[in-house]
Amino acid sequence: MRNLTSAVLFCVISVTSIQLVPGQVILKNTYTYKTAGDLHILADVYRKNDNLVKPAILWIHGGALIGGNRRGLNPEQAEKYLNAGYTIISIDYRLAPQVKLQAIIEDLEDAYRWMRAEGPKLALIDPDRIAVIGHSAGGYLALMAGFVLKPSPRAIVSFYGYGDISGEWYSRPDPFYNRQPLVSKEEAYKAVGTQIISDDKDWSRMQFYLYTRQKGLWPMEVVGHDPDREPKVFDSYCPLRNITSDYPPTLLLHGDNDTDVPFEQSVLMSKELEHHGVQHELITIPGGGHGFDGVMEDPEIAATFDHVLKFLDTNLER
To answer: Per-residue pLDDT tens for 206-256?
Structure first.
């Protein structure tokens, strides 16, 4: 086991009662689920203040694997998950470019292992009823979870995620991002500094992401390999290449006007899942951009999210 905090060493950082759900007390506990050197990597656990054993959601934030943090969970979406009877565990993970993708995947594996081992005691979760949900890069990690996590999660939900990280959309200069002011290499590296972190508190690191998209360098900076020279290295990092009939039921949600992650990424995943006979569905948001679900007041988006809850209920046997 890779430096995963043990059941004896796990650390409660904070215990908070919040009114996330109107009229109900929600407990938000923050734990160290893993240490890597001196770095404590954290998870927030959201649950209703009751004594019921519940299925759980492992929630993964986006940010291109370069930025973001566990607090990116949309409060309105969290409210819907909690009201539907789920406990939510939102995790941080180490961020590129100081660490590469393999280390990030190890954090995901260790978070899941910790969740299954400690979750029943700390949060009354059922370790055999876990869904993995992620947005953007978190959606990518959710799709990775479908084949790297053992035992497999019961369900995967990917909001505008992607199954291929070696394609030209990521490894060539991007026309959309090159319409924005160019970021120099010096500016990019200044934005991320040199310290290994797992919590990008102010999202300032996204200047580095913009630089990688303008130059077509994301695979090099995040994976540490050139997909043109070392294509085989990317096989184990592309969910699209690792679908089997044992892959968990999967729900894909993507706007067809996404200027960050091409809509085609979810289309390709859907076709591959269908090829292997995996239960799945692709929900297309006409005209939807990246982060289409940010406006939950929109009736169409709210209805789409209700579909997510039905998918979870079906596959986690609610």
So the answer is: 999 999 999 999 999 999 999 999 999 999 999 999 999 999 999 999 999
Residue type, 50: D
Structural domains present in the chain: 11-164+245-311 (3.40.50.1820)
∠ CA 135-141-147 to the nearest 5 degrees? 135
303 C-beta neighbours (distance < 10 Å), count: 9
β-strand partners of 134: 60, 158
8 Å CB contact between 120 and 127: yes
Which one-letter DSSP state was computed for residue 32? E
Amino acid (one-letter) located at 318: R
3-state secondary structure at position 264: helix
Flag whether pLDDT at 12 surpasses 90.
Answer: no
* Residue 238 burial (CB count, 10 A): 18
Which residue type sits at 22? Answer: P
